[in-house]
Amino acid sequence: MLMTEQSLNILDHVRLAVNGRAQRAERADIGQFLTPVAIARFMVSLFSPNRLDHVRILDAGAGAGVLFSAYVERLVSESKRPLSIEVIAYENDGRILPELTETMAHCESACERVSIAFHGEIRAEDFVAAAIARTEEGLFAGPGERFTHAILNPPYKKINGQSAARKRLNAAGMEVSNLYAAFVWLAARMLSPGGELSAITPRSFCNGPYFRRFRFALLEMMSLRRIHVFESRKKAFGDDDVLQENVVYHAIREEKNPERVIVSSSAGLDFERATVRSIPYDQVIRPKDKDAFIHLVMNQADDRVVERMRCFTATLHDLGLDVSTGRVVDFRAREHLRPQPEDGAAPLVYPCHFQDGFVKWPTLSGKKANAIALSAETQDLLVTADYYVLTKRFSSKEERRRVVAAIYDPLRIASPFVGFENHLNYFHAGGKGLPEQMAKGLALYLNSSLFDRHFRLFSGHTQVNATDLRKMTYPNREQLMRLGLHVQDRMPEHEMIDTILEEGCEKP
Questions:
Q1: Measured distance CA(306)–CA(458) in Å, rounded
Q2: What percent of the chain has pLDDT over 90?
Q3: How far is the C-alpha of 507 from the C-alpha of 312, rounded, in Å?
Q4: How does DSSP classify residue 334?
Q5: Which residue, 206, 169, 167, 243, is CA-closest to 396?
Q6: Which three-class secondary structure state does DSSP give residue 74?
Q7: How many other C-beta atoms can be found within 10 angstroms of the C-beta atom of residue 412?
Q8: Which of 13, 20, 121, 204 could form a disulfide with 461 if both were Cys (CB 3.0 to 4.6 A apart)?
Q9: Does residue 275 contact residue 299 with C-beta atoms inside 8 Å?
Q10: 286-323 pLDDT per residue, tens
Q11: Which residues contact 467 (CB under 8 A, 6 or more apart)?
Q12: In this structure, are residues 331 and 301 in contact, taking their beta carbons and an 8 Å threshold?
C-alpha cells in the first residue's frame, strides 16, 4: 500500500492512548470514542469504486483522523485515482489536535508520492454550530461546502433541550435529541448529488419516537444501501467499555431507493466472516409505516421468528387496548412518597416489585418507596385498581430478556387506587383495567421468547418504549383468553411459555 500500514497502526496506538483509563471518563462525558482501524477500513470499503477526478471528504468529529486517512489510503491504492483529494476535518478537542495534524501530514505525503494534489484543513470548532452557520437560509451548506464523501463516527451524547445547540438545530428545522443524529443529518445535507455517506452510530435511531424526524429526513435525502450490525454490544469499541449496540451504514445522496438493501452482521471486527443478506427494501423500511422504522432481519433464525409472528396479527387498537408510561416520576413527587404502606396512601409499583410474573407488594428492601399519599396533588398520578399488565422500560446492558412483564392483580393488594412509577409501561383499556383472563394471556405473550426476539429485531436499545410496544402485533382477543388459562398463581417458566404459545397459535 502506498500509505504505509505503519501509519494506520500508529493511529490505533494513539486511539488506545487517548481512550486510556486516565481520560476514559472525559471521553465518555463528551460522548466520543475513537474508531479502531479495522472498523475504519470496513467503513471505507462500502464506498463505490472511485470514478471521480476530484474527491472532497468531510470527517466531522475526526478525532485522530483514522477515518479519512483510511479512505485516502484506499484512494491512492485504486487503479482509478483522483486528480485531487481535499479533506475537511472538524475536531474541537484540543488534546488530540497534534495527532490529527500529524495524520493529515501523512495523507499529504501519501498523495504526493502518486502525484495526487492534496489539501487538508482542520477546523478546530464545533461542527454543529459551524455547519449551521455556513448554511444558506439555515438549511444546508452552499456550493462551496459540498462534499463527495462523508465518513463519520460522531459523538454519542444527548442534547439538552435548553442548550444552544438544540436551539440552533430547531431553528434550522432539525429536531434531534442526540448529537450523533445531528452530525449525520448535517453531513447528509452537505453532500453533492450522488455523494456517499458511511457512518457508525448507535442502532437506536432505527426505531422509537425520538429519532422519527431524523429517520424521515435521512431516508428522504439518502438511498440506503448497506447496514452492518455488531451482534455483541461489547465488540465494536470493546477496549473503551462502550456497550452501545452499534451499526455501520452506507447511503448515497439520491432520491431513488434501491430494490434491495444489503444487511450484514458480525460478532466483532472479523468482517471477513460476516453474515451477509440481500433483503427487499420494502421489508427493511415498510412503505406504509408512518414511523419509518428500520427492520433488520439478520439470519434464518430471524426469518423463523417473523414467520411465527404471522399467527398473531392483532394490533392494540384492534384489542381496544393501549399502553402508557407510568405517571409517577418519583423525584418530582418525592414529598408524597412513603417508604411503607400507611393509611391515606396508595400502592406505588416499581420494577423491583416484579416476582414470578406478578406484582408482589410491598417490598421490604427499603431501596424504593412502597406508597404514595392520596391527595389532590397526586390524584392524576393514580389509576383505579384493576388488572393491568406492566413491563419494565429499561433492561440492564446485557440482560437476557429485553421485555419483562408482570400482572397487577387487584385481589392481591387491597387498595382502590394504584400508582405506576415512570420506569414502567402499563397496558390498559381506555385508562381502565383489563379482564382478568385477557391480562394473564397478554402477560404470558409478552414474557415469551418469541415476542422478545421479534421486539429485538427492530429495537436496538435497552429501553422498551410505549411507542415500540404499540408497533408490535398481538394475539387476538380469543387467543389471549385461551393463553390466560395457563396462568394461575405464578407465570409458567419461559420454556413452558414458548410451548404454550406454539400450541395456542390458532386462528379463530
A1: 12
A2: 62
A3: 8
A4: G
A5: 243
A6: helix
A7: 12
A8: 204
A9: yes
A10: 888 888 989 888 778 888 888 888 889 999 999 999 99
A11: 208, 209, 291
A12: no
53-109 pLDDT, tens digit per residue, is 999 999 999 999 999 999 999 999 999 999 999 999 999 999 899 999 999 999 999
458-495 pLDDT, tens digit each: 776 668 989 889 989 999 999 999 999 999 999 999 88
Report the C-alpha dihedral over residues 487, 493, 496, 501, rounded to 10 degrees. 60
| CA distance linking residue 345 with residue 417, whole number of Å | 9
56, three cell numbers: 472532497
248: cell is: 455501520
d(CA 153, CA 66): 10
Helix (H), strand (E) at residue 136: strand 135-136
Contact criterion met (CB below 8 Å) for 408 and 347? no
Q: Which fold has domain 316-503?
A: Adenine-n6-DNA-methyltransferase TaqI; Chain A, domain 2 (3.90.220)
Residue keyed to cell 408490535: 472
Least confident of 229-238, 320-329, 373-382, 391-400: 229-238
DSSP output for 427-488:
EEBTTB-B-HHHHHHHHHHHTSHHHHHHHHHH--SSB--HHHHHHS-B--HHHHHHHHTT-S
Show me where the domains of the chain are located. Answer: 316-503
Q: Is 103 left (phi over 0), alpha (psi -120 to 50) or beta?
A: alpha
Residue 393 neighbours by CB distance under 10 Å? 20
At residue 35, what is the residue type? T
Asked if residues 274 and 70 have their Cβ atoms less than 8 Å apart, the reply is no
CA R_g for the chain:
26
C-alpha cell at 274: 460476516
Q: Output the CA angle 232-222-154, nearest 5 degrees.
A: 45
3-class secondary-structure state, position 187: helix
Q: Which of 219, 184, 188, 187 is nearest to 200 (CA)?
A: 184
**Is the distance from CB of 319 to CB of 474 less than 8 angstroms?**
yes
CA 192 to CA 196: how far, in whole Å? Answer: 8
SS3 content of the chain, % helix, strand, coil (to 5): 35, 25, 40
